[in-house]
Amino acid sequence: MRTTTTTDAFLRALAHSKSVETQTLLLDEMLRSLISETESLDDDDDEDRAWFLDLRPREKYQKHSLSRSVNIPFDEISGSFHLLPPRETPFSVFVEEGRDDDEESLVSSFENQRETFQRGDFKGVQWNIKYAFVYNEHFINAVNAKMLKMQKDSSLGNGVDTHDVLALNNEKKKNKRRLWEPSPSVKELYKTFLSSSETNNNKNNNNNNSSSIVLDLGSGVGRDSVYLASKGFDVLACDFDQKALTRTQEMARLHGVEDKVKVLKWDARNDDAFMCALSSVDDVSRLKLVLGVRFCHKPLFAQIVKHMPAESDCFFAWFHFAKGCEHSKVGRPNKEKDLIAPNEELRSIFTKNEGFEVLKDDVSFISDGRPSANFIARR
User: Fold this and answer.
1) Which end of the chain has less neighbouring CB within 10 Å, N or C?
2) Predicted confidence (pLDDT) per residue in 256-266, tens digit
C-alpha cells in the first residue's frame, strides 16, 4: 500500500508540473491535508519542524527554497535516511525539474528517485511520501499566488499558518529544521521532567560551563543526543559504532549544536563500562541524566547503581523493548537478555535503599505494535 502511495505521489507531481494552475491544485490539496496531519503534533517542537524534503542540488536550494523544508540532495539521500521522519509520518518532497523536455527522461528520473526510497525500506515498511512537487517556475508562481490569496485569512485551521508553511527560507533558520524525530519517550521525558527552570536552567544560557549534562549510552546515530542538545544540554553520546558516532557529529553540525555534543567510542561489554563513560564527562556535578534508548546490556545496570553520583538530583531513564516483543508480529528481540520486564526488573535494581525514587515504570507500544518498557528514576 505504501509503495503505491509513493508511486502515486511522484506520478502526480509529474502530471501537475506543467502549469501554475495544476501546481496550485496540488498545493491546495496538500495544504488541506496538513490540517489533519498536525492534530497530534507537540507545539513545543513546532518551531523546529520541517514539512518538506527538498531533493534538489544544494546550489538550487540555496538560491530559492521554502522555510519549512530540509535539503538533502538526491545524490546524498541513500546515506541520509536517518535524517528522514519516522516511517509512518506523512511528508512531501520537492524534486528537480528535468534538464530537458524529453518526457521519457523525466519519467526515468522520477522512477529512479522513487526506487531509491524503496531500497531504503526497513523491515518491509516504506516511507510515507504523500505529496511530491516539481520545483519549477510554475511551482514558485503557485506558491506566490497562494500567499497573496491567503493574506486575509492566513490560518488553514488547526493552528497551521499558510504564510509559515510556504514562507521562503532565510539564512538564520535554514539548517535548523528537522524532518527526523527523537524517541517519543525522550520528548515526553524532557517535557515532564527536564524542561522546568529548576531542572534545566541552561536552554537560554550561553555559558556552556553551567549547562546540565546528559550521558546518552548506546546513542546510535544521535537523534536523541542532538534533540537534547537543542534544548540546551551538553551531551556525551556513547556508542561502539564509529559510523553512528560520525553521523551524530554531522547531525550536530547540521543543527548548530556541535559545541554541545561530544562523542565517545564506547564498549558496554567492559566491566568498567559505566565508569569509562562517566570519567569522560567534563563535570560530574553537572550530570542531570543517564539515558538509554532501545539499547540493553543488563550488566551495565549494577554499574550505574554503584557509580552514579549519590544525592545528585540526577535522572536515570531507560526506554527499551519489553517482554512480549517475542509474541508480536515483528517477533524481535526475543531473547530474555534483550528484553526488560516492566514494573519489575529495573524497579528491583534502582531501589529506594540505593537512593532512587522511581518516577515512572510502565509500558507503551511503538508504531509496529511492539511493547516498550519506560523507566525513569531520580537519585
Assistant:
1) N
2) 999 999 999 99
Local confidence band at 327 (pLDDT 50, 70, 90 cut-offs): confident
| Degrees to nearest 5, angle at CA 179 with 331 and 6 | 70
User: 195 is written with which cell numbers?
Assistant: 524542561
- Looking at the predicted structure, is the pLDDT value of residue 27 above 70? yes
Q: How far is CA 1 from the centre of its chain?
A: 24
Nearest to 276 by CA among 221, 318, 238: 238
Topology classification of domain 2-166: Oxidized Rhodanese; domain 1 (3.40.250)
Please report the DSSP string for 208-271 in residue order. GGGS-EEEEET-TT-HHHHHHHHTT-EEEEEES-HHHHHHHHHHHHHTT-TTTEEEEE--TTST
Distance CA 103, CA 109 (A): 10
Q: How many other CB atoms sit within 10 Å of the CB of residue 60? A: 16
Residue 222 has pLDDT above 90, yes or no: yes
Residues sharing a CB contact under 8 Å with residue 197, sequence separation 6 or more, in sequence order: none
DSSP conformation class of 286: G
- Kindly list the domain boundaries of the chain, sorted by start residue: 2-166, 184-378
What is the dotted CATH code of the domain comprising 184-378?
A: 3.40.50.150
Query: What stretches of the chain adopt beta strand conformation (E)?
Result: 52-54, 69-71, 91-95, 129-134, 155-157, 160-161, 213-217, 234-239, 261-265, 287-293, 315-321, 357-365, 371-378
Q: Which of 215, 185, 188, 190 is nearest to 200 (CA)?
A: 190
Pairing mode, strands 315-321 and 357-365: unpaired
